[in-house]
Amino acid sequence: MPTTNTKGKSIDSLIAPANAPHPLASGELADFKVGVDTVIFSVDTEQHRLLVLLVLRHQAPFSDYWSLPGALVRVGESLEDAADRVLTEKIRVNNLYLEQLFTFGGPNRDPRESADAYNVRYLSVSHFALVRFEDTALIADGVSGIAWYPLSRVPQLAFDHNQILTYGYQRLRNKLQYSPVAFDVLPETFTLSDVYQLYTTVLGEGFSDYSNFRTRLLKLGILQDTGVKTSRGAGRPASLYRFDAEAFEPLKDRPMVFL
Amino acid sequence: MPTTNTKGKSIDSLIAPANAPHPLASGELADFKVGVDTVIFSVDTEQHRLLVLLVLRHQAPFSDYWSLPGALVRVGESLEDAADRVLTEKIRVNNLYLEQLFTFGGPNRDPRESADAYNVRYLSVSHFALVRFEDTALIADGVSGIAWYPLSRVPQLAFDHNQILTYGYQRLRNKLQYSPVAFDVLPETFTLSDVYQLYTTVLGEGFSDYSNFRTRLLKLGILQDTGVKTSRGAGRPASLYRFDAEAFEPLKDRPMVFL
DNA sequence: CGACTTATGGTTATATTAACCATAAACCAG
DNA sequence: CTGGTTTATGGTTAATATAACCATAAGTCG
Q: How far apart are the C-alpha atoms of B226 and B190, rounded to whole Å?
């Protein structure tokens, strides 16, 4: 249902002469600042918890609220570059998995819109990332706080970031089922149990028991047995496997597990 | 790999004093115009072809090139509104299925960026739509041509629109498998054969033969038999069914067919 | 009327899934 | 060093789902 905001339009035509080289001269076209907000997940394998990275804002709007890490896109910078910059500025990580999520851009989603002199809109191109928890180092730079939050304890966030987070979580669950992102955040070699742990902490239990999960994964033929055994505490030593990206190619977009 | 375009940055700081109320005063933040480009599909049930709507540009850049229908977002207009506007301005249709696709926003994707006085970037929030072919009426308004192109005969398009189209086609195929979009573009009541035709023209043959497709669809329990029979030319009359949206709810995100 | 065409409702072999179970090979407590 | 515990591994089996067919029903068409 197109709802043309006649209020904004008329104000605009009143203050901006038709053909002046003014940024709003196009009459009714909106001007945007574009932000990149990233839902950064990691899995705490020790405590079997899914974590999301939040930063504490110290500027209006939403001062003292937690929010998703983000940045405004700079001149000459692509959206991907900006998203990468968020990752490397906040956590020192070799970007493990990153993908665009959704673009939120309704008017009035950012309080700065009404505050600014010009009628500037703020657009958020959200991304979601999955990083290896052990390989990250938090950098509290330009923010008054930064922390990994267990997903279950995320507070009310700034802007529409709770909505973005929910969407990112959905996408993460989906990715895990249909693509081998898990192997991007697992170490080079890992046990089948490591994989299962990762899947259960993100997806919950109840998609397959361990035994069936094993056989399915092995039958896919995307794991190479290194022959090396590892013993971690009690129990029989487990084989270490390596992900075979080539073998996975033909299986693209085929479900790996079922819920 | 963040590649900060230092050239753009320095030019900017030369022409814009640090704290002036100029749109580029923020120093290194880029200013954007936001476009909405929509991949509009429909299925020609007569000729069993998948069609996509293209418009012929008559303005630089890419004058005389075919392109996806699009529009620049206006003041006070949400992204969804803009996408809706594209649909209603180009084809008179009660928007049947519409969803956001991907946001393309690298620098230099639009030639206008270098031509403009200000260093304005053009962002494209692409959408994809599936409409009922029979319910559309093309409106050649503000363009020098508008046409339904069979997907197989799409020429080279303006901007990066071929890429967007490819992505949209992928998404369409995916949607058809996992969600009941098909019933949005089918008439209120339809035969099982109608559904099968739609699926094969989009997905190609080879996911199920007709008989198995029928039993699967019926076993899902999302179709109500109206009891009414329809006879179209030769052959035994077929039952007319109606889609039961409520019955589908619990099946959300479960595959309906397999390739 | 007989031939053809399309819809419908099976059947059957094969593959997949889900729910178990038995054994192997480590550790650990006494 | 021995029996109990723990974890990994490699099955088995019944229930389901899939894929490839086939037979019949009920119309149209010549």
A: 10
Range of the domain at A238: 186-251
**Measured distance CA(A165)–CA(A162) in Å, rounded:** 5
Instruction: List chain B residues with pLDDT less than 70.
Output: 1-27, 95, 110-111, 113-118, 253, 258-259
Pair (A71, A120) in one structural domain = yes
CATH code for position B244: 1.10.10.10
Question: What's the rounded Cα separation, in Å, for the pair B52 and B195?
Answer: 19
Q: Is residue A1 part of a domain?
A: no
Q: Cα-Cα-Cα-Cα dihedral of A163, A166, A171, A172, to 10°?
A: 140
Task: Name the residue in chain A with its Cα closest to that of B100.
Answer: A102
pLDDT of residue A255: 73
Contact flag B23-A118 (C-beta cutoff 8 Å): yes
Give a yes or no: residue B136 inside a domain. yes
B143 in a structural domain:
yes
CA distances in angstroms from A180 to A19, A131, A170, B179, B221, listed in the order given: 53, 13, 16, 23, 33
Q: Is B233 left (phi over 0), alpha (psi -120 to 50) or beta?
A: left
Q: Are A12 and A119 in contact (CB under 8 A)?
A: yes
Answer yes or no: do B157 and B57 share one domain: yes
In the predicted structure, residue A215 carries a pLDDT above the cut 60: yes
How many distinct structural domains can be found in chain B? 2
By CB atoms closer than 10 A (0-12, 13-18, 19+), residue A222 is buried
Last-in-domain residue among B150, B178, B206: B178
Compute φ and ψ for B181, nearest 5 degrees: -55, -30
Q: pLDDT (tens digit, 9 = 90+) per residue, B124-138?
A: 999 999 999 999 999
Give the rounded distance of the alpha carbon of B6 from its chain centre: 36
* A119 in Cβ contact with A8 (< 8 Å): yes
Q: Take residue B101 and report the two structure tokens written for it.
A: 């696709």
Q: Which nucleotide is nearest to A238 (CA to C1')?
A: D8
Average pLDDT over residues A179-188: 95
How far, in Å, CA of A85 to CA of B121, rounded?
A: 19
Report yes or no on B16 lying in a domain: no
Q: Which of B115, B143, B178 is the last residue of a domain?
A: B178
Q: Which of A73, A75, A101, A173 should one mutate to test binding to chain B, selecting the residue with the greatest count of B CBs within 10 A?
A: A75
Tens-place pLDDT, residues A78-119: 999 999 999 999 999 876 899 999 999 877 776 676 655 467
Residues A113 and A192 in one domain: no
Q: How many CB pairs under 8 A join A and B?
A: 153
